[in-house]
Amino acid sequence: MSLSHDSNAGVAPVPPVTRREVWAWAMYDFANSGYTTVVITAIFNAFFVSVLANGADWGTLLWTVVVAASYLIVMIVGPVLGAWADRRAAKKRVLALVTAGCVLTTLALAPVSMRGTDGLWLACAVFIASNVFYSLGENFTAAFLPELAESRHIAKVSAWGWSLGYVGGLLTLGICLAWVMSQQAAGAKAIDYVPWTLVITAAIYALASVPTFLYVRERALPRHDVDASHVLAQLTRSLAMLRKYPDLRRFFWAGLAYQAGLAVVITLASVYAEQALGFKMADTIKLLLVVNVSAAIGAFVFGYVQDRLGHKTTLAITLWIWIATVIVAYAWHTQTGFWIAANLAGLCLGASQSGGRALVGVMSPRSQIAEFYGLWGLVVRLAGVIGPLLYGLVTWATAGNHRLALLVTGVMFVIGLLLLLRVDVAAGEARATTE
């Protein structure tokens, strides 16, 4: 199986992609998954609400606000950097810089968190910086995907990355669980041991990303027809160019809806478990360890299913599972019900994200890959603003009614599914390859 495609405009003729290079690219998903698992999903978010915000009624809303603020910044910066990287053939250079930024700010978040409520506002600022760097890293690692895989294999290769990513999340979360349980057994408080999980996360991120920078090659050629002073103007034109790619534009709208639901799950799962169902931190971590196994299996299996059934059909299946997940969690409001719902979510979590990433690569013009992935990053980050912020507002307005907020989340998946039905992937790919 050849993983590389023929050269197109702006892409240098290079030797075929090796399996080692694909593995090295996927290792970046392994590296950064610990960040999203520990900081966004499992440990720091619940710590933020219960300890830094002292369990106040506005704690969940504040968490969603700082998450939203970080994604608003990425919405502005991401497409600009993507356009600049396309013109300078500098995706790998930018990826290295934002990786270093995320590692350093995650380390800085540890001593700030040790200050408890006194460090709340500084923690907000440092977290925003770290999540901006992390999110930009996601954009730029995704931009390498169409250079590494032909369209007929892009879903499979994308799924390899997501699957390996969940392994990385499992490793990081597992080490953090061992640390948390040992400290709890010694009678330590959360403010003493949670900050060290951030140090563990940063260290694994730094070490595991090394293969990416050693073996992944920058295949794009510098384009001297446009310099940095024209990046903003080009960004405006690229937004306007979406009119030339109607199916890609329709998919962006579908993505905005269902990614808003995904963002709620990713940023508020442990908050929901703790605030609505009374989970303890160690129990939440154990649950998310199991969910990571489900997610790794789901991402890997659905990658092959997507190659067989098609991108759109497979993504639609995952959205149906998401809708069922919300129904189960809402109707079966117990810890047992949440375990079942969480593992259903895990099966389609990676598949939903991987499938979306692959679809963007298939329907984007090859000479503007990083730029269009920047626009996809804008969509995903806007969803990351809308979904969690809506959840936070509902819980705040209803004095902590997390079940109602969960039901609103389910509506996002329904809207995403309905919009996805209007996307013609074959037409979108044909238009992208003829430009």
What does this structure look like?
The protein has 17 helices and no strands. The protein has 435 residues and is mostly helical. It is globular and about 60 Å long. Residues 1-12 have low confidence and may be disordered.
Oligomeric organization of the protein chains = single chain
Following the backbone from N to C, one meets helices and strands in this order, namely HHHHHHHHHHHHHHHHH
Query: What share of the residues does DSSP label as strand, in percent?
Result: under 5%
What name does CATH use for the topology?
Answer: Growth Hormone, Chain: A
CATH class: Mainly Alpha
Number of helices: 17
CATH superfamily: MFS general substrate transporter like domains
First CA to last CA: what distance? 26 Å
Largest sheet: none
Shape: globular
Unreliable stretches (pLDDT < 50, length at least 5) are: 1-12
Total beta strand runs: 0
Comma- or semicolon-separated keywords:
435 residues; mainly alpha; Growth Hormone, Chain: A; 17 helices; 0% strand; globular
